[in-house]
Amino acid sequence: MTRTGLKLATALAALALLSGCVVDPTMQAGSSNAPAKEVAPEDPPPPPQLQFAANYIAKQDGTFAVPQVPVEKVPVNMLRQEVDFPNTEAPGTIIIHPGEKSLHYILNNRRAIRYGIAVGRDGFGWAGEAIVSSRKPWPTWTPPKEMIARDPKLEKWKDGQPGGPTNPLGARALYLTTNGRDYGYRIHGTPDWWSIGRSASSGCFRMINQDVMDLYERVPDGAKVIVLNNDGSRANGLKLPPPQPVKAKATPKPKAQPAVTPDTGAAAPIPTAATGPMSTPAPSVAPAVTPSVTATPAVTAPAVPTPSTGTTTTASPTVAVPAAPAPAAPAATTPTPVVVQPVAPAVTVPAAPAPAPVVIQPAPAAPAPTCAVPLVNGICPQG
């Protein structure tokens, strides 16, 4: 074999060896017509909340049933769990961080149990120190007067709402006081588990019922409670929220009053009792003329002394009639007839007739004497 042929044979042999590394589809296991085996997908990992589900199962507590909490709907950092918590406080102390919506119960070895909470809504938060003065299971809730003023629907509970599953304080309550004074703040349960992690209360700290029941068993009376500022800093003394404004009650609309027509007429004069002969009030411009009376011209008599008759005429009772308003004085100097409003006829008392004047006739003058001697019985003796 020539050298060229040898090289060709060697190349063919190498090609054959290389072809042996190629997988023939027809040589695979099974037939090419058989479906390929599917690989089952891996199960998704369980939600992290499920590892805490045992803490929130339904339970019976005396005569009340505590329902199960759907932990998958609660943020995992709001569920009860033991965590590292470096601090310098004594075990048994409660530290509340409103900004993080968390409550830590201090354990030994720089560890703590963390609970999720709801805190006061805007304007209702506070900070400072307090103590747990008392604890109560299934407490009665009595809304303060300020809360009733803000929400009048709570008036029905002014004497207290008995404890139970629908009570706003939930299954347990820890009552807080500062320097012996109760400001109305509590650490308590709630039937509204979905409010945990929010700013939703009037200053109290809400917990899931199963969590507050757990804390209730750990905390003794007199335990120290530290409420931090929202930024996590320590408060300098007690910082209370300002008083909240009270909703003003709606002012009822005034009822419509009937229109009053002003009286433009002149007020009638008040009648007065007559003490003498009746006289009709006269206008200031011209004397009123009564239609039923005819004026008689006055007679001027000689100035002769008139003997007094000694008789007094007593006026009969009269009826006083209000006079019509006096008309305005006319500008002309000539008297204008005055229109007199019709009035009821008055009783006219005739005046006693005045005695006729006595005219003294002068005695006739005596005739001139014609007797030369004195008269005797008026007769001249010489006749």
UniProtKB/TrEMBL annotation:
UniProt entry keywords in alphabetical sequence: Cell shape, Cell wall biogenesis/degradation, Glycosyltransferase, Hydrolase, Peptidoglycan synthesis, Signal, Transferase
Domain of life according to the entry: Bacteria
Gene3D superfamilies found in the cross-reference section: L,D-transpeptidase catalytic domain-like
Statement: the UniProt record of this protein carries the keyword Cytoplasm: no
Signal peptide positions (record): 1-29
Name of protein: L,D-transpeptidase
Compositionally biased region (Low complexity): 246-289
Organism: Aliigemmobacter aestuarii
